[in-house]
Here is the input.
Amino acid sequence: MSMNREGRPTGTGTVASAETSAATSGSALLPNEPLLFEIGDTEHSGVDLPDVEPFESRLGGFGRKSPLNLAGLTEPEAMRHYVRLSRLNYSIDSGMYPLGSCTMKHNPRLNEKTARLPGFADVHPLQPLSTVQGALQVMEELADWLLTLTNTTAVALSPKAGAHGELCGMMAIKAAQEARGQGHRKVVLVPESAHGTNPATAAFLGYSVKSIPARDDGTVDVAAVEAALGPDVAAIMLTNPNTCGLFEPQVIEIAAAVHAAGAFFYCDGANFNAIMGVVRPGDLGIDAMHINLHKTFSTPHGGGGPGAGPVVLSAALAPHAPVPFVRRGAEGLELVEHAEEGHLGRITAFHGQMGMYVRALTYMLSHGGDGLAQAARDAVLNANYVKARLEQVFTAPFGGQACMHEALFDDGFLAGTGVSTLDFAKAMIDEGFHPMTMYFPLVVHGAMLIEPTESESKQTLDHFCDVMLELAGDAREGNAERFTAAPLRAPRRRLDETRAARAPVLSWTPPEAAAG
Amino acid sequence: MSMNREGRPTGTGTVASAETSAATSGSALLPNEPLLFEIGDTEHSGVDLPDVEPFESRLGGFGRKSPLNLAGLTEPEAMRHYVRLSRLNYSIDSGMYPLGSCTMKHNPRLNEKTARLPGFADVHPLQPLSTVQGALQVMEELADWLLTLTNTTAVALSPKAGAHGELCGMMAIKAAQEARGQGHRKVVLVPESAHGTNPATAAFLGYSVKSIPARDDGTVDVAAVEAALGPDVAAIMLTNPNTCGLFEPQVIEIAAAVHAAGAFFYCDGANFNAIMGVVRPGDLGIDAMHINLHKTFSTPHGGGGPGAGPVVLSAALAPHAPVPFVRRGAEGLELVEHAEEGHLGRITAFHGQMGMYVRALTYMLSHGGDGLAQAARDAVLNANYVKARLEQVFTAPFGGQACMHEALFDDGFLAGTGVSTLDFAKAMIDEGFHPMTMYFPLVVHGAMLIEPTESESKQTLDHFCDVMLELAGDAREGNAERFTAAPLRAPRRRLDETRAARAPVLSWTPPEAAAG
Amino acid sequence: MRYLPHSDAERADMLAAIGAADVDALFAAVPRAAYNTTPLELPPHSPEFLVEAHMRQLSGRNRAAGDGPFFVGAGAYRHHVPASVDHLIQRSEWLTAYTPYQPEVSQGTLQMLFEFQTQVTRLTGMEVANASMYDGSTATAEAVLMARRLTRRSRILLSGGLHPHYRDVVRTYVGDGDDLVCLSASPEGQGDILDRIDDSTAAIVVQTPDFYGHLRDLQAAADAAHARGALLIVVVTEIVSLGLIEAPGALGADIVVAEGQSLGNPLTFGGPYVGLMATRKEFVRQMPGRLCGETVDADGNRGFVLTLSTREQHIRREKATSNICTNSGLCALAFSIHLGLLGEAGLRKLARLNHLHAVRLADALAAIPGIELLNRHFFNEMTVRLPIPAAPAVEALAQRGILAGVPVSRLEPDDPQVENLIVLAATELTTGADIAALVNALEEVLA
Amino acid sequence: MRYLPHSDAERADMLAAIGAADVDALFAAVPRAAYNTTPLELPPHSPEFLVEAHMRQLSGRNRAAGDGPFFVGAGAYRHHVPASVDHLIQRSEWLTAYTPYQPEVSQGTLQMLFEFQTQVTRLTGMEVANASMYDGSTATAEAVLMARRLTRRSRILLSGGLHPHYRDVVRTYVGDGDDLVCLSASPEGQGDILDRIDDSTAAIVVQTPDFYGHLRDLQAAADAAHARGALLIVVVTEIVSLGLIEAPGALGADIVVAEGQSLGNPLTFGGPYVGLMATRKEFVRQMPGRLCGETVDADGNRGFVLTLSTREQHIRREKATSNICTNSGLCALAFSIHLGLLGEAGLRKLARLNHLHAVRLADALAAIPGIELLNRHFFNEMTVRLPIPAAPAVEALAQRGILAGVPVSRLEPDDPQVENLIVLAATELTTGADIAALVNALEEVLA
Ligand SMILES: Cc1ncc(COP(=O)(O)O)c(C=O)c1O
Ligand SMILES: Cc1ncc(COP(=O)(O)O)c(C=O)c1O
Here is the structure.
């Protein structure tokens, strides 16, 4: 099996086709479900509509002639299709989801309830402002919380996710550099351990990315930053707490150096959960930072979104915030929708993710300032507890120090066992757990990044650690087969990713039989 | 293995302890979940409440001194506990649920939505009537639909379930007999095939139950009824369509004979789904009939309730309807809450199952008269389709005729295979289906009663029949082990019911270790 | 129609497989005179958005409890139910499962019921509890019948503090005979029930907090009943009270029945609710309703099943302890989740908060000239005597946007003694502003 | 705090196991100056019922679309979403799952995405679709960048019928340079975009139905673009239109981007919505966003995985096609369920109904003296010219309880030509009564 630099196996070659496990072929509680297009047809429908008498259309010659071929299901069929499919998913609600860097915390249902109040869910973004004062107030209150939590000057609420927030923040930086006559600065510094969105964002805006190496302890050396800074550097994108789960101890010095060199400090705030209510990033010298409401502020991940990535901005960048934003006017709250001098234009239609604003604000009000700080402290406590318990066996690359919200291990403890990080992850599934983040950050070989979040009880953490230690023990005793064949107790065994990518099948087409 | 009259094995002796199946000990998608009391404790809580400053209580000496010992969970723990537990359940939404006599049809979510409108869910039963006119109108509209569908004179909405409706209807009959000076009639006729609630209800009211045998074709002979009638008979309780899934062909003659003998005709309407919108029971001569809104009108079964069992009444019984009921008055709708001359008193506090009224009315409005009739016809079509396909192998005791909404088989086709109806049922679980109703009705040996309802598509029925035929073939080929050891692919294997009943453990107590 | 999966082509295929000419042929057993081939006189099927609009319109014609100050109790209480409860009970696997007759694929429901039973025993201080009844009132009637079976006696005494609806239900269930003694309403907490117990008495039925809000002395009742070989049936309509008030089981109750609505279940104009029933271990075989018990599976793993079914109609038919079949499973789940979220600490705090608000309400009412507060000891509910008839006063308050409680005359129309009485409840949701608004409006109405 | 599972005792135990004196010790790496041990100036934690009350109060200060006649469109549309859609997407397994990076326990999400992609290809008439973008506007900007990569040209032409917000987003994304040509607003459906295509043009961006409701001739646009080696990017903001209007793919579109909100997703003041993106098979490796593909597992059973990730940031980092990571999974699910419920027959009928109501609205508006209807061909949206400025008129109508549409000047404040224009939409929910009320009120406002 070939390994790349991070130690990730590149094929599915680890899996010998084993005897079919019972669960794989579908049973009463873990069904096999055909595709929508294999169940439905173009005649069936699960929506009743009034009959339409013939009338003279105004479509001109633009009417649809090409087939639609959309499968329809009646409501009972649809209900079953989507319930059965859903049963094949793991979720936070069904078990610990220790994905490092993802902050898979409890998603309170109060948030879902408030987001569905008709005054939020059934309101159009372009209604007259006099009819949406409550919505604007949600935006204002959310902005206030974010500003207080970060000690910054302005916040752009509209980014639709973390990466969008990065784009927004880096655009503001670009605009600020241009406003200063520094548009020629074309380099962005990004530590090796950064999330992929950081270099991708910088490149997206035409910057070239200069990598900053990590120190042996997993943190960034201010000296390395100073060495990389120069008149061509527009900004640094630094994640703090970083993706190794560590607080950058020299962050204030780094900020100072960056500013001294005429650059800005973009902070990736994906890991804000570790410090919310405890550390205000503005006090560290950041200029822009996105906050993933779908991580730190509990809006649900939804199988991959939607999220929201508001960006807080320092005084230097505040004049370059994008539109729209809310401000107080004579007749109540106003929405500034058109870019005034210096402001960025829109980065999205309308005003951003109101549904997420409502959820996040509900979450904040529920926790209060005290609860948010306690949540951060518990998140850190939990990660350190897992770290302390697993360190008995697991190899922690940056072991000596306390971690923040997540504990990072490498695959050192698996050396010679024939078990890879991937194999280990798949074996966790058989024991009832979703795997941790694997092979990220890239600075560690066979990385295992475990973020329990504050939502996990000690009981669950203990069970998790027991299972992890038992698995590790078993791997080291030579029972590689348990790992390389895993999972055996999931609806599917390992999937052939190479095959998927080699000749991509990205949509359903009827089998030859039906077609011919 | 000993068998009782119905052919039901009385022990779990069929199951040799086999090798533990993987699924049994919990995996990522089918977890093992400890008890609430094993997770929570008396300190944890998932509810925040304002702090209460000390104050002078008005409890007198009645304050609680004995321990509560109630386990509490924080919200993330609770969410997980109940989601994990739920994943161990089968449901209509996850697969066909062919329980005969139970009408496990699709439960539309529109019904759940309307039932939660604040004007229904957040209204107190004893608010001034001027503030609940919409609620009274729901009751009136529901009553109108039921009366039209049944061609009867009055309806008592308040019964809380089918059996409660039986009680209500039989109380009305008792009152009517007493009003006629016929209070001495102490016998109620009940066919052998009747549901257990029928004889239980009669006995509950002090009647003695006289059993009417079934004919060889599964229906009741008017001659047998006539023979049993007499001056001591207060009523007959007849299910139509009956529990063998057959329409009683002589029902009109039976009604006439019953009436001629001075008795009343209570019809168990649990199977109304087969004929709603097609046959009006009032046209058959019934005097009282309950309608399980949780069967025919799609209110969810909820793992065993709540239901609602409104009872329609003939002109003869209408004066004996219980309170409360709605009527139109000068200032809008009125609620008659106190028994006037002849009326029965209350059979429940307040006004019955408003939550179910809203759901059932929503369902009726969605279907319309045409849709309800079509649903009944589809239910009958589906049952006959299953019957036709399975009859190839399965033995149908009353085979010749078309069935109504459910198809009845006996265990004749399993003779000599060493496989019982129970075994067969458990093997269905391994193939992805909930078993049909077993060992009911009692008139058939090893009964298998299959009610697909109108909600199942042809595709699902075909898959179901394929599986059933494959299983039957396998049983007859001698693979008894597949059945006697089943289920192997469920969260639990067969449970020891004898042990449960011998030394009942009905609540949790801490293990000795913890106590000692 | 959106709920019906078949196309006409599929129907035709199925008929062909059956060998029937049409669906009408399948209805051949139906007498032609009673067979309708054309739709009945009912509206046709309707799009979801039109049905929803109609139901919204009806809903809009009701005043929701949350729309303003609200003090209505008398057997159903407005508490805050955490959002997670309603979310959870709507999961398909809870909502659309049947009674757990196939335990291997119903362990969720079964374990929940086992937990529910455990919670009810602990709340009530009893040894066993069943898996729910329809509601508190029918549970009370069933308890009366159970007591008769247990004692083989027939005389039943109902306290004058019992909820009038509950009394009426018992009366309907057991019939109006000499052996049912309904004591007259006791709005002042008075009553001579203990003196009426004799050797033919099967049980006395005492509610606490009673309908008028009074806390009743259960120990005295138990002692008096037991002295004559009778049983004490205790009724609780506000289950939250048990977070602050002594458990009936600790005071000698033989059967405890209760309305569980306050936990987990919205008001919904009276139902569905959830009846609780608990008793002594030795009485379990005379208990009605389902019971869930612990056992093991063929691999020795712990699991749960419905048990002692030989008490029930589906096995015992006319010899069953009751005819009950469908009960209140989903409401029991809501109850159990809410109580699981509260836990002991939360329930105690909730009960204290209810009591505190009730104390404030009582003090505010008692301070209004002309109003007499009838309760010395109470939990979250109380009765006041107005100088005028209560029913029109409550209506006048409703016109002012305040739902002020229940005029007792609505439930006891024939008893002139209660004409001026209102029963009012406070819960954790009652605010100081609500109380002030009530006091203001009452003063207006009385002026 | 209800969301935090630890008791203080548990915290102490854990600290002991860690070997830390207190939690502060775990924060040792934080510079002391920036470390807060006391809570920030924020309100303290709050009971659920108080938080809910606050949010209800804010919600109550907004007018819901359902509260009265409603004609607002312009990129977001009020359609009826079946109750089952919102129920299903709230299932824990959909709502609280992460991106399906572990396919063995994420087949639900993956199969759904595969179905979604298939639906999008069929709707748009394209060969491949991705697993969603944030929304229609950002998808448009990404499509522009994709076209530049594909053609290695840089000039982009934006039609004057493109939604102004979309235009603004493209402008923000690519910067205001010579190579971005934004044609001026074309409320009459006019425009000379085809004449502006040259050999340096990467793509032209054409919306249909356009912002003003006009149906645009895509075939002509495709032919003109392809003749100069440029690509045609088609934007659709009302996806329901594709039930009645020719698929862009059938008319030569190279990239189709759309806002999918109309299916499955409520208005929610503008987000979250779901961006759709579809293209030709040969372009797939330049497409941004996630893709789900079919494969088999080790036992040979069909299964699904995220694939072609070498386009994406988490593998390719600075060489990725986009920085997008989190997308709109749950909104895509809602879209897919709603479209799965509709099916072809339902979508066609829904589109016809929308068109019918729009025709009625157009006819009613055109009949008002002084009002000019600008559209000859349209789907469910149209533009009218009032004799007075539109913004105050719309405000005056709102005061009368009617949300009458969008004054174009709100989006194009600097263009005097549009000052009197309103864009109005009708959907299946628009009733005759709504239209009559609008006409009445408009006549009043114009009088
Ligand atoms: C460190 C880090 N940065 C950025 C992101 C991107 O955020 P989003 O997925 O919301 O675009 C993530 C998300 O996983 C992350 O972990
Ligand atoms: C034929 C028949 N009668 C009566 C009943 C009792 O109805 P319920 O369970 O609603 O009390 C049932 C329920 O299964 C039944 O099938």
